[in-house]
Amino acid sequence: MNSAETPAPYGTGSPTAANASPPSAARIRTHHLQAAKDEGRRFAMLTAYDQYAAEIFDGAGIEVLLIGDSAANNVLGHATTLPITLDEMILFSRAVTRGARRALVVADLPFGSYEVSPAQGVESSIRLMKEGLVHAVKMEGGKDYADTVRAIVRAGIPVMAHVGFTPQSEHSLGGYRVQGRGDAGRRVVEDAVALAEAGAFCVLMEMVPADVAAEVDKAVSVPTIGIGAGSATTGQVLVWQDMAGLRAGRQAKFVKQFADVRSVLTQAARAYGDEVRDGSFPGPDHSFQG
């Protein structure tokens, strides 16, 4: 591999300033993630839904950005991920791809965009790449969707598989529940193996026991990503609003808040409102003179 095309090794540090420009290294590709798995390194993934989040996370050295269908309940105010449309996912994808210069950008295939047939999955994936400018798509579902993965990969589109708890199936799964406990763990492993064999470049596992996730990581040669799946996976992902403490209320067990952005924004908004009401903003420094 040409050294000019090789990003800085993962885990070797990030820009010194939180708002530093994205690294000058070339775009991270799927084979870089595979190299991380092969060499025992790890990478980080965060959701992003807009230009500024993408720019900040990219500059901070996050290797993979996910335009998740979680935009439905983290941006659009829905109770679940189910209502978001393919057109809305394309809109969010355009914003993120404009802001990310180095990270691999992956977009979710939303509910209703691939379940009818492999051909529907290919068509939806093409739109996400052609109109949203993403580099790969993520698709929920087990081994029953292996043919869809094959069809999308055959069309030249990288696919990230998503097994375990799949939010688009929450009604059939009985709500937000850990998947793969006890004998059901075998199904998670079988799903992951079948999808990797179908051509998925990576397998994401959500809300599965750590020992099952570790078994999956050993069973597949491709990288694995966990969210509520323990520490044995190659990568980890969180919804950025959870990671940064923007969302209020009860947090899932697997969430760790690395900041309290909600408090910072609340304080800023209060200070702004106070200064507007008492007349101190705008002052001379923020006013034009004739």
From TrEMBL:
Assembly: Homodecamer; pentamer of dimers.
Bias-annotated ranges (Low complexity): 14-24
Location of the protein in the cell: Cytoplasm
EC identifiers of the protein: 2.1.2.11
Name of the gene encoding the protein in the UniProt record: panB
Region Disordered: start-end pairs: 1-24
GO cellular component assignments: cytoplasm
Principal location class: cytoplasm
Enzyme category, top tier: transferase
Cofactor annotation comment: Binds 1 Mg(2+) ion per subunit.
The keyword Methyltransferase belongs to this UniProt entry's keyword annotation: yes
An individual GO BP term: pantothenate biosynthetic process
Protein family per UniProt: Belongs to the PanB family.
Name of the protein in its database record: 3-methyl-2-oxobutanoate hydroxymethyltransferase
Keywords of this entry: Cytoplasm, Magnesium, Metal-binding, Methyltransferase, Pantothenate biosynthesis, Transferase
Residues that, per the record, bind Mg(2+): 69, 108, 140
Superkingdom to which the source organism belongs: Bacteria
Pfam families with a match to the protein in the record: Pantoate_transf
Pathway annotation from the record: Cofactor biosynthesis; (R)-pantothenate biosynthesis; (R)-pantoate from 3-methyl-2-oxobutanoate: step 1/2
Required co-factors: Mg(2+)
Gene Ontology MF, one: 3-methyl-2-oxobutanoate hydroxymethyltransferase activity
